[in-house]
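S.,

Sequence below, as promised.
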Amino acid sequence: MAHKTEQRYIALVDLDAFYASCEVLEQPDLAGKPLLIGGSPEGRGVVAAASYEARAFGCHSAMPMGRALRLCPWATVLHPRFHLYRDYSLRVMDILRRESPLVEQMSIDEAYVELTPSASSMTEAEGLAHRMQGRVRVELGLPASVGLAGSKMVAKIACETGKPKGFVTVRAGTEAAFLSELEVGALPGIGPQSAKRLKAKGFHTLGQVAEAETKLVIASLGLWGAVLQRRAAGIDPSPVSVNHETKSMSAEETFATDVDEAETLEEELTSMSARLAESLDKKGLVARTITLKLRSSDFTTIMRSASRKQATANSDAIREDALRLLSSNWQPGHPVRLIGMGVSSLKSVQGPGQLMLGL
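The prediction came back faster than expected:
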């Protein structure tokens, strides 16, 4: 006899434009203005965060600051104050833990909250999640979006569809219908290149992926495609883990056509460095080891690493190490099919100033 699966109630709380929202709290005259937070455009700085007013002009995180200012010349540029953001983040997490001790913090501005032990129905879980969202707004002045569902993945997608300041509930049994019309790139785990491959095969929505023959999805995405197909149907049993420890982070890009130009590879590493630095900052971590991954046109793959004397979360320092690894391990004119990089040997930041170590 099959056992009945317990209904879970999981909320994903995501603070809207968190860095910018913190800056507006500290400087109310910035409210309603386009804000760009990051490095100097003169020093090849990148955008760490952009307010929604700046995003309306096409600005986004990991974009070179110079390009962002060309899109929105009247934006106010602010240097990041990570100690301020961490302080607000700690206060937000304290509010979430008032409703449930089962809080899995994913980054400085995002956390899953398991409400199953406290709620006997989705309606009751909605009340608890609304209370969390309201307390964050009233007690701290920070806007947040909430997605509520029976799984972490669906809760995250629900939250994204409601941004900013939204509250989206996906009830049991409606997961597949909720996901079906969303484009394939909306599913965590399907990046830009995977989305291109799926669309080339005629899969444009998650509903099409969920209903396809599994072998066709695997043909496009490899064996991982079978897992993503289940997720496209709304199936995700992953638990909320309170003891969530990040051991490494990585990013990679598979090119549509092989690349043999140094400038293109360097641009990719610059973009990846910015994204990894942002992820480190959000999690309050610093990294000591930088790894470069190169795959040639014949699928030969090499991975090379370098360790710093001092750990860092600074994008320029990470990029410089990655470019040195590229220079030492790649010959100009040699075609590259895939490039990737990662950071490891991670540790928590002990004090605000440590984020800038390694400069």
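Residues 262-283 form the longest helix (22 residues).

Coffee later?
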